Amino acid sequence: MRLNDAKTLEELAALGVELRPGIALSTLTSLGIGGTTDLLRVTRHDAIPAILDLLDRHQIRHKFLGGGSNLLVGDGELPWVVLQLSQPDPDVVLDGNLAHVDAAADLGRAVTFCAKHDLGGLEGLIGVPGTVGGALRMNAGAYGTQIGSYVTEVKVYRAARRTIEILRDDQISFEYRHTSFAPDDMMLAVTLNLPSKPYSEIIQGIRICNEKRRASQPMGQKSAGCIFKNPPGASAGRLIDELGLKGLSVGDARVSDRHANFFVNAGRASARDMLALIADVRDRVQKAYGVRLENEVVVWST
Ligand SMILES: Cc1cc2nc3c(=O)[nH]c(=O)nc-3n(C[C@H](O)[C@H](O)[C@H](O)COP(=O)(O)OP(=O)(O)OC[C@H]3O[C@@H](n4cnc5c(N)ncnc54)[C@H](O)[C@@H]3O)c2cc1C
Fold first, then answer.
1. Which one is catalytic: 114, 123, 137, 226?
2. 6: which of 28, 120, 180, 254 lies 20 to 30 Å off by Cα?
């Protein structure tokens, strides 16, 4: 979608929005798939209610982009614009055991920044790409660590009320790859309460997690991490692997040879290829085990 109306563009600029016209989302997503639209970089949290009000008034549909590491975006010209928070400097501020982190902060860099100040707990999240906002949205987790366990409060734009609010941890539920935020809420910042730990101990934990990742995941290939959530009491990857589906392909979309729940873009896969592969694997697993796999990857279809 292209924004052409001069007055709308002027109003957006006055609200601190930086327009990046005609961006191919394939360049902003870890899968390397996705069509083209205008990207609006949001530089001020306080302007968000007015920005979204303006988009609504002009019937301009929108999506929120974090780091693009859990997304499968449709092909072609996209029928919505994309909003992305720009990263403030600094994006992490420490106060004792509390880390105040902007949603646009890179998760891995936030983990290592806290580690250097002897604040641990997040070691398991070290290899999870993307932003802190994206991690909060789905309660990202790995190796027994989930970001939600450390949250004390979240600053969020609540679309239903068009206000920016601070939610305490007891007002949010964080479950396995699921949170109680509304789909159109936008996470702006979070406060994490992290345990004190010596840097040397945290680094040791980080090394162990990095080794586990290197041993089990397709490194250096375009993916969105796990495509499916694990069904209760089972591993989606194991179910897919047991059916011998590693290497199964539709066009350049392919089930990884290394980790059966990672689907990779082995060349010039389209969203259509990847969606067909996801549907095929889901059907086969359902037929074989009676289990319907639910997407972990977020699909932005057109
Ligand atoms: C190689 C690889 C390994 C991975 N390993 C893991 C893993 O171990 N564990 C795990 O949990 N995930 C993993 N992932 C998936 C992904 O990294 C996480 O889900 C990550 O937290 C997504 O963050 P993001 O900023 O990239 O979000 P995006 O992909 O940009 O967006 C994902 C969703 O979050 C929403 N969103 C993003 N930012 C905001 C915001 N500020 N406010 C509201 N909504 C927002 C988007 O609208 C979208 O619906 C992996 C991905 C890759 C590529």
1. 226
2. 28
Q: How far is the CA of 131 from the centre of ligand 1 (A)?
A: 7
Contacts of 196 (CB under 8 A, 6+ apart): 97, 118, 119, 120
Reading across the β-sheet that carries 263-265, which strands appear in turn? 249-250, 253-255, 263-265
Which is catalytic among the residues 137, 153, 177, 254?
A: 177
Nearest to 104 by CA among 135, 132, 68: 132
Tell me if 131 CB under 6 Å of ligand 1: yes
Q: Catalytic: 209?
A: no
What torsion do the CA atoms of 61, 15, 91, 20 make, to the nearest 10 degrees? 60
Q: Which of 39, 71, 53, 14 is nearest to 157 (CA)?
A: 53
Q: What is the DSSP letter of 60?
A: -
Is 177 annotated as catalytic? Answer: yes
Judged on CB neighbours under 10 Å (0-12, 13-18, 19+), 24 is: middle
The reported pTM is 0.97
Q: Would you say the CB of residue 32 lies under 6 angstroms from ligand 1?
A: no
226-275 per-position pLDDT tens digit = 999 999 999 999 999 999 999 999 999 999 999 999 999 999 999 999 99
- pLDDT tens digits, the chain, 302 residues: what are they? 999 999 999 999 999 999 999 999 999 999 999 999 999 999 999 999 999 999 999 999 999 999 999 999 999 999 999 999 999 999 999 999 999 999 999 999 999 999 999 999 999 999 999 999 999 999 999 999 999 999 999 999 999 999 999 999 999 999 999 999 999 999 999 999 999 999 999 999 999 999 999 999 999 999 999 999 999 999 999 999 999 999 999 999 999 999 999 999 999 999 999 999 999 999 999 999 999 999 999 999 98
Query: Is residue 226 flagged as an active site residue?
Result: yes
Q: How far apart are CA 206 and CA 127, in angstroms?
A: 9
Bond prior to 231 in cis (omega within 30° of 0):
no
